[in-house]
Design brief:
- This is TetR/AcrR family transcriptional regulator.
- It holds the Pfam family TetR_N.
- It comes from Streptomyces globosus.
- The chain is about 70% helix and about 0% strand.
- Helix 2 packs across helix 7.
- By secondary structure, the protein is an all-alpha fold.
- It starts with a helix and ends in a 5-residue tail after the last helix.
- It is built from 10 helices and no strands.
Length: about 200
Amino acid sequence: MPLPRFDRLPPETRAAVLAVARSHFARDGKDAASFNRIIAEAGISKTSAYHYFDGKDDLFAAVAADTAARALAALGPWEDAATERRFWEQLTDGTARLSAHLRDHPDDRAVLAAAGSAGDDGAGDDGGWTARLVENGLRIGLIDPLADRELLTAATRALLDAADAWALARPSLPASRTAETLRTLLTRLWTAPRP
């Protein structure tokens, strides 16, 4: 992640540097992107760049984290649903918003796909969104209450991460198909087996 000096830059300067880097990483890929070209286009000197980042991998981690935050903002916060029907509607609506964001911002899609395939931790923090989803599902009886919550949340997060990677690799996949697949997988994960 960026060094503390980067956080002291004005927000518009940070956003501009990350936007340039996002464009390069999306176009050229993480490995082929040139740190020197990125910083030159961003208008910062090599000396300054090393005051902000430890190198290209560090810059990529910052871009991945920023891009994940942009995607999470498009998804929107998880609002407690009072009914099973509203729960699934909210998940479907969020999937549609996220799909639209990624369609309209292909650089975000490319960076998130690269971060996921590289196992980058920068894109993995959902700010508690998954925990709120699971807690809501437990509260309304959608999720088997006998499962360990910590394990259930981790398993749900892993499933969501896998579904994200699957959808990111398929840009033309309709949001409705993604939402339907997600609902099927989550239902199977959350429901106690029938004897």
